[in-house]
TrEMBL record, chains A, B:
Homodimer. This is Magnesium transporter MgtE. GO terms for cellular component: plasma membrane. Keywords: CBS domain, Cell membrane, Magnesium, Membrane, Metal-binding, Transmembrane, Transmembrane helix, Transport.
Length: 470, 470
């Protein structure tokens, strides 16, 4: 692989050629790269220059390269190109695309354009395309391709290899082959490895594994990617309710799914609700607002409750105003402690390392961890407050009226210990309970946990202050 | 795939057989599952019952199954089993493991045990093992295997297939074959697909691709997984400084790397520093404390500064005590706004969707998003404060002394707008700057951002209150 820097230079160069309308030179330079990289360069052209130049260059690519490059472009860019080329060119691209890429493109196009394209498609394929377009988004059905090698169990290895030689070019993968019964039921799986290391006269029925793992066409893509991670497959068969083989999913498509699912989880954990896979810069301002405002609003409401709690302790506060100076520390440390625990538990739940039945062990572990952390942080604080802020405040020599010294230190440190323990227990229990009752645990991450621990922190601190200081 | 529920039942059943010492029945039930699942069941046995029973059952498995199951166990469990079986059994397992799994196991074992095992290994292999053990953790070298199919460019397809038939059983993959020059330099790559669809007398030199992507043996595993995600490979060649082929990495191992890297990123974003891949429940309490305490402490120190800022506004606060009630809302909303932005930017940086050169566009986008969000949240707040808290506090009818009404509403709402804008700009710029100067952007996530926005929030709020209310 050329280093990143070299590739950036290549992009620079090509952009310059295009800007100067040296399209042939641009094309020649482009063609020195592999199709994935050409796709990436075209993305840059589209972003930094304009649609027109992108389409000029795209049309100058050899037809077969153009189709492959097209399949690697993000769907927004595909749509832009589709709108700039002729119907004939569109038909050619759609015809030549791998079946699963074809479905992906058709899903993004406006309905009237899809109809126009489908009119020109042979009836058999049109039916298949319509079936695939109807699988729910993020289901196994929406990820699979019907282009696989299917064998019969009474074939010999020699016959199977001859068949693969004939059909192998059009199949998504040839490395796993599928053995079907008469009624299209999936009977077994045989790898190309076992075909090439066995003699030509061995029967497929002797080689095929019948104890294979499969997914259902309506399974969620997350389950599918779990299966790939667990078993390390290159491809997995997808069956319908009657156990008929309807397609296969290959590992390269799963890498994209994993990335998508991870992004969704991470964003949810920060209170961003985004169900598209549009890149940050390509998303409109209003869409960004829509993705972020709802949670900010919900959480803002929770802070109003916290504010109410503080207001109800007005008497305590106005008597010892310096208590306010320690609030950010207690609330912040509570929030951070809770979100550490929540994050660890959310991730462990996602990886199936723990489930609800472990809740007792989790609480016990978090309790011990939080007691140690709480004692350490409290002690450090106690020393700091008594030593540096003998008056009890944070900023140098205490002004008049700030004079409760050790009692304040005791209040702050006692609260700190209780808050850390409570935050860690809340942070670990909430995601587990959420999962149990069918809510995505990722929603129970930092923003949610920290707004809850804020309430707990304020109540703990104010009660303790009322008891100890006054 | 059997549904999760059925598999849980299978585990239950087997655990029961083992508890009742019906080891033969347990083994028979175990062997109905595939090796990955047997591994998972043994993990459960080890966790819920004890080491002794686990080892009894493990030893009853057929030798070849035992080796494969062993390779799927987490390394802590492998070490426990190694300590419970005889030296002869250990030697057998190590000898039979795939090369990359063998290295993984040896890395986890105590040095004296490794020496004992290596003594019995043929000299040639011992040298190779030592080379592999010396590659840095998380480098391409530590992930690769030397078991690949290597061909010469003057072979014919027929000769190549005959060679694969002979060697294919011991190779990690046969689906990508590597063509080497005399000096072990990597010359090209040829897929098994192109071998089986071409005629026997075609020369390898005509089929091989010479424009292949490769990684260097010291590249970080993150770069390797980026290459897999980008190009959708099944395997990637690893070369040394002289461009000699030293091994290959297959996609199934990359799925584990992606999971590991994602976990590390997510944990870092919540202020948990964990460089092991031990599961949550298997990690000791002290280790959990060590992973979490440092960041909590660092952040606690930042809150002390925030506390100091508050203390310096003591005059303002003691005059209008109800200002305190709005602090959690302003600080909390600031923190949440900032962490939304930081999370989106950190993820976009990780996926290479944006880089430092986009910083202007990012700031402009965040500015517009934050102005809209800030105005919406401020307006809602203004209405609420004027309507529900005419006295200016959060809790019902305002007690004596809380009576600055509309000016307080203006202070809170004006601060809210400024805080949201500042938080979103800080949240987006900081991760980009961090990456630019070589710090992991994941460290600039929620805890860090929210402790910074806390300071900004308090200063903004207090200054505005001093100006407007007094």
């Amino acid at each position: 692989m050329d280093s990143e820097k070299d590739f950036d230079q290549v992009i620079e160069e090509i952009l310059e050629y295009i800007e100067n309308k040296q399209y042939f030179r641009a094309r020649d330079e482009l063609l020195k790269n592999n199709e994935v990289d050409i796709g990436e360069i075209l993305e840059e052209v589209l972003e930094k220059l304009d649609v027109e130049s992108t389409i000029i260059v795209f049309r100058m690519l050899p037809k077969d390269v153009a189709v492959e490059v097209f399949s690697y472009l993000p769907s927004e860019d595909q749509v832009e190109i589709i709108h700039g080329i002729t119907d004939k060119e569109i038909s050619y691209i759609i015809k030549e695309l791998d079946f699963d890429d074809k479905i992906d493109v058709l899903e993004e196009l406006p309905a009237n354009l899809v109809d126009k394209i489908l009119e020109k498609t042979p009836k058999e394929e049109r039916k298949l395309i319509n079936t695939f377009l109807n699988y729910p988004e993020n289901s196994a059905g929406s990820l699979m391709t019907p282009d696989y090698i299917s064998l019969q169990d009474n074939m010999t290895v020699g016959e199977a290899l001859a068949y693969i030689k004939k059909e192998g070019m059009d199949s998504e993968t040839v490395y796993t082959c599928y053995v079907k019964e008469k009624g299209r039921k999936l009977e077994g799986i045989v790898s190309l490895r076992s075909l090439v290391i066995n003699d030509d006269d061995v029967k497929i029925s002797e080689l095929m594994g019948t104890d294979y793992v499969y997914v259902n066409v309506y399974d969620d893509q997350e389950e599918v990617s779990e299966a790939f991670k667990k078993y390390g497959f290159l491809a997995i068969p997808v069956v319908d309710k009657e156990h008929r083989l309807v397609g296969i999913i290959t590992v390269d498509d799963i890498l994209d799914v994993i990335e998508e699912e991870t992004t969704e989880d991470i964003e949810r954990m920060a209170g961003v609700m985004d169900d598209s896979d549009t890149e940050y810069l390509d998303m409109s301002v209003l869409r960004h607002v829509r993705n972020r405002l709802p949670w900010l609003f919900i959480l803002m409401c929770s802070y109003i409750i916290t504010g109410g709690i503080i207001a109800s302790f007005e008497a305590t506060l106005s008597q010892v105003i310096c208590l306010v100076a320690y609030m950010p520390m207690l609330m912040g440390t509570g929030g951070n402690s809770g979100s550490q625990s929540a994050t660890l538990i959310i991730r462990s739940l996602a990886l199936d390392d723990i489930d609800f039945s472990d809740i007792g062990r989790v609480i016990w572990k978090e309790f011990r961890v939080s007691v140690i952390i709480g004692i350490v942080l409290s002690s450090l604080n106690f020393i700091r407050i008594c030593w540096l802020d003998p008056g009890g405040a944070g900023a140098g020599p205490g002004p008049a009226g700030w004079g409760y010294g050790p009692m304040i230190a005791a209040t702050v440190c006692g609260s700190m210990l209780l808050i850390v323990i409570a935050a860690k227990i809340i942070g670990s229990v909430l995601p587990m309970v959420a999962k149990k009752i069918g809510i995505d645990p990722a929603l129970m991450a930092t923003p949610m946990i920290s707004s809850l621990t804020d309430m707990v922190s304020v109540v703990t601190y104010m009660l303790m202050a009322t008891a100890l200081v006054l």
